Write a sequence for this structure.
C-alpha cells in the first residue's frame, strides 16, 4: 500500500519513495521506450507532468484512435512495442478500434489509460468507463492497478505479454490515485506469470516429419503469413525456399517476407490473390503454412481448400492449429527457430514439371488492367509509384479496393515494407499508420496509398504530420465511392448503389489548409509528373488522383466459392 511517511528499511538504509506517476515513467524508460503516442486528459495529468522531463518523444494525434494506429504502425515498422496513452472514459473507449486492429493482426502494443479514483469506480463518476471490461475482447491481456506498489511490476508484465508468444495489445488501466500515491522504488524482479508459457522450440520429431514430407512432395507450396514478419523469420523463409526449391505464396500481411521479384514467388493468394497462386494451392500435394491462420479471405470455401494437399502448419500459437483447417503435421513454436532447423533437413529437388505448370499459369493469367483508356487507372498509379520509388518505399494503406490494388501491383522485397490492417479491415488506418511508420523510420520514404472513403475517416491527422514535420506522402485513389462496397453492389446487388457514393472535399485544398502540399491529378498524362513532385517534397504531401470511378479489383473469389472459382479471368484473357 501507499505511504506518506517513509520508514527505515531493514538494512538500515532509507528506502526511496516516488509518486506512482514517476514510477510509471521510470519503468517505461527501463523497457526501452523512447517514443509514445496519445492524448492527455484530466486523470492522466500526474503522468504527463512527470513525462515533461523524461527522454521520451511524445506524439499528440488529433484523435485517440489515430494515436493507436500510429503506435500499431510504429510497432510494425520498427519491431518494437508501440505505446499509446489516453485519459479515462471517451479517451479510453476511442482506443477500441485500434486495439481490435492490433489484436487481429498480432501487433505488440501497450495501452496506458487513465481511470477515476478507486473509491469512485462504479459510481458513474465524470468520465468513468469500465475500460477493462470494454477492452477485454480486443486485448491479449488487460488489468486495472489498484495497489500503487504493483505499478512497476504490472507495466513490466504488460510489455512481456505484448511482445512474447503470439504478440498483441495489452492495456493497463491507471486510476489517478495510483499515480499520485507515494511508492517505494523497488528493483526489477524476474517476471513470473503462472499459466502463461511460451513454447519457442518446435518438437524435433515434428520438424523431421515435416522435412520428410517436403522431401517427398512433388507439388509443394510454401504459404507464408504475417507471423513470419513478426518473428523476424524472413531470411529463414528464403533459406528454406532456396534449399528445398519451393514456390512461395503470401497472405496480405505476409507480403515482403519473400522477394516478389524472384521467379519462385507466387505473390498473394486468396480472394483477390493471383490466379497462379490460387491454382497452385488447389493443385499442390503439400501446403507448408508458416505464421498464417487460414483466414476466410485466404481459404475461400473451407471444404474445398487445398483438397489434394497434406498440410504442415508452423505457428507459435497452439490455438491456431487446426482451428479452421485440419492440419496433418503441426509444429508449435517460434517460426525463426523452426525454419532454421527445418532447412537443415530438407533436400533440393528440381520439381521441373511443377514449376513448368506454375510458369504456364503465370503466362496465361498475369495481373492485368486496361492500359488503353484515357481515364486514370489506379493500377497505373501504383505501378508508377513502384517505378519511381524503385520498389523500395515503405508502403502503408487504408482498407478497400486501393489496398488490394497495392497488394497486387506494388512488388515488395523485404519484411516490414508493407503496413496495412488485415484481419479487422479498419478503414482510416492509412494516414495515422503512415505517421507512425515515418516516426519509426526517420529519413526513409513512407507512402500512404489510400482510398477516398478510408482517408476521409482520419484525415484530421494531417495536422499531426504537419506539426511534427513528417514528410509522409499520400496518394488518394479517389473514385467518389466506397469502392469495394460499390464493387459488391455491382456484382451481387444489381448495381443498386445504396449509400455508397460520396461527395468528397477538394483534397488538395484541404491539405494546403492544414499546411501540407496538395496536388490534384485528373489526367493520365499528369500522373508521373505529380508523383515525381510528391516524392521531391520535404513536407507532408497529398495527391488526389481522380481515378476511373467503376474500376474493379480482379481476380475475385466470391464469398462461399473455392479458390479456383475466380471471377475476372475472362477479363484478363480479353486484354491479352
Amino acid at each position: 500500500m501507499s505511504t506518506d511517511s517513509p520508514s527505515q528499511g531493514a538494512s538500515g538504509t532509507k528506502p526511496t519513495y516516488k509518486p506512482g506517476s514517476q514510477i510509471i515513467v521510470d519503468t517505461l524508460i527501463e523497457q526501452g521506450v523512447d517514443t509514445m503516442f496519445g492524448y492527455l486528459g484530466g486523470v492522466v495529468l500526474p503522468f504527463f507532468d512527470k513525462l515533461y522531463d523524461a527522454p521520451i518523444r511524445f506524439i499528440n494525434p488529433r484523435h485517440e484512435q489515430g494515436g493507436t494506429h500510429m503506435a500499431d504502425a510504429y510497432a510494425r515498422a520498427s519491431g518494437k512495442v508501440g505505446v499509446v496513452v489516453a485519459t479515462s472514459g471517451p479517451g479510453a473507449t476511442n482506443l477500441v478500434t485500434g486495439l481490435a486492429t492490433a489484436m487481429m493482426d498480432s501487433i505488440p502494443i501497450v495501452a496506458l489509460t487513465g481511470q477515476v479514483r478507486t473509491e469512485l469506480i462504479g459510481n458513474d463518476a465524470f468520465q468513468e468507463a469500465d475500460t477493462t471490461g470494454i477492452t477485454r475482447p480486443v486485448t491479449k491481456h488487460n488489468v486495472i492497478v489498484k495497489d500503487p506498489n504493483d505499478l512497476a511490476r504490472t507495466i513490466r508484465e504488460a510489455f512481456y505479454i505484448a511482445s512474447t508468444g503470439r504478440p498483441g495489445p495489452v492495456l493497463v488501466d491507471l486510476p489517478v490515485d495510483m499515480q499520485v500515491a507515494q511508492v517505494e522504488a523497488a528493483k526489477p524482479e524476474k517476471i513470473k506469470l503462472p499459466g502463461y508459457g511460451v513454447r519457442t522450440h518446435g518438437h524435433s520429431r515434428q520438424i523431421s516429419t515435416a522435412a520428410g514430407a517436403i522431401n517427398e512432395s512433388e507439388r509443394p507450396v510454401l504459404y507464408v503469413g504475417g507471423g513470419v514478419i513478426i518473428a523476424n523469420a524472413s531470411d529463414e523463409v528464403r533459406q528454406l525456399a532456396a534449399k528445398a526449391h519451393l514456390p512461395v505464396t503470401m497472405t496480405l500481411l505476409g507480403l515482403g517476407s519473400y522477394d516478389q521479384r524472384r521467379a519462385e514467388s507466387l505473390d498473394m493468394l486468396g480472394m483477390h490473390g493471383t490466379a497462379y497462386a490460387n491454382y497452385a494451392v488447389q493443385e499442390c500435394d503439400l501446403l507448408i503454412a508458416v505464421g498464417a491462420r487460414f483466414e476466410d479471405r485466404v481459404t475461400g470455401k473451407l471444404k474445398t481448400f487445398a483438397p489434394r494437399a497434406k498440410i504442415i502448419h508452423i505457428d507459435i500459437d497452439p490455438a491456431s492449429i487446426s482451428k479452421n483447417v485440419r492440419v496433418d503435421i503441426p509444429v508449435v513454436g517460434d517460426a525463426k527457430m523452426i525454419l532454421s532447423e527445418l532447412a537443415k533437413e530438407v533436400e533440393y529437388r528440381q520439381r521441373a514439371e511443377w514449376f513448368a505448370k506454375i510458369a504456364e499459369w503465370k503466362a496465361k493469367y498475369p495481373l492485368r488492367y486496361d492500359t488503353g483508356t484515357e481515364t486514370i487507372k489506379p493500377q497505373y498509379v501504383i505501378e508508377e509509384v513502384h517505378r519511381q520509388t524503385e520498389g523500395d518505399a515503405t508502403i502503408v494503406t487504408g482498407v478497400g479496393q486501393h489496398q488490394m490494388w497495392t497488394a497486387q501491383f506494388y512488388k515488395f522485397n523485404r519484411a516490414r515494407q508493407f503496413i496495412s490492417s488485415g484481419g479487422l479491415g479498419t478503414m482510416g488506418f492509412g494516414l495515422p499508420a503512415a505517421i507512425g511508420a515515418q516516426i519509426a523510420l526517420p529519413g526513409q520514404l513512407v507512402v500512404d496509398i489510400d482510398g477516398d472513403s478510408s482517408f476521409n475517416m482520419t484525415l484530421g491527422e494531417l495536422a499531426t504530420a504537419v506539426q511534427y514535420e513528417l514528410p509522409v506522402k499520400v496518394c488518394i485513389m479517389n473514385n467518389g465511392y466506397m469502392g469495394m462496397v460499390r464493387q459488391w453492389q455491382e456484382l451481387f446487388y444489381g448495381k443498386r448503389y445504396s449509400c455508397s457514393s460520396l461527395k468528397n472535399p477538394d483534397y488538395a485544398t484541404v491539405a494546403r489548409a492544414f499546411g501540407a502540399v496538395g496536388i490534384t491529378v485528373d489526367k493520365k498524362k499528369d500522373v508521373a509528373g505529380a508523383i515525381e513532385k510528391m516524392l521531391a517534397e520535404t513536407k507532408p504531401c497529398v495527391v488526389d488522383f481522380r481515378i476511373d470511378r467503376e474500376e474493379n479489383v480482379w481476380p475475385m473469389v466470391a464469398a462461399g466459392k473455392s479458390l479456383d472459382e475466380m471471377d475476372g479471368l475472362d477479363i484478363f484473357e480479353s486484354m491479352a
Observations:
- Residues 79 and 242 are 25 Å apart (CA to CA).
- Residues 17-184 form a domain with the Rossmann fold fold (CATH 3.40.50.970).
- The chain has 24 helices and 22 strands.
